[in-house]
SURF1-like protein (Roseicyclus persicicus), 224 residues
Amino acid sequence: MGRVIGALVLGLGGAAILLSLGVWQVQRLGWKQGVLVEIEARIAADPVDLPATPDPVADRYLPVAVTGVFGEGFVRVLVSQRGIGAGYRIISPLETAEGRRLLVDRGVVPVADAVPLAPEGVVTVTGNLHWPEERDGFTPENDLDDNIWFAREVDVLAAHLETGPVLVIARSLDPAEAGVTPLPVGTEGIPNDHLNYAITWFSLAAVWLGMTGFLLWRIRRRSE
């Protein structure tokens, strides 16, 4: 009897812990979905003027409209689009009438295409502020000789193109630019794996209960 009680305590206690972890992930899923809805609403809001001192946290995804003239130089950042393939994000410096210099992610060109020159004259860029976090331990070092970058690190890009540490990811340019397809900010890259985690914990709980049932059956067989 003692072995049966011990197996029940171990089995039901372990299953309870695993089930609680699954419930917690379901709660986290609801929270994350709410956060994504808020971010999507912020991204799609009406654009405002560029803040005097944009904050990487408070102003992330802020929609802005900025008017200025593109400067010389650009950076190609390798990107892969689902269903389309590899391309380069083109990031160029923009100087406003007030003399502020900032980065503009103009959009994407296929890897086989030449990079079009930035539009001449005054351009209005409508888009969103962003400070992407794209570099990790597996990201290659940028190839400065061939101007191929692998992450949009705003501080590094700003130093390279001699701008302030501000990046606007374009939704549209006025006048429009031929040859470059805008790739606006979205929530696709924000991880939301809580459903998968919940399924994993619930599955482990089911397996744990199954193993507990098998153990009780073995104990019973041996006691007969």
Observations:
- The mean pLDDT is 88.
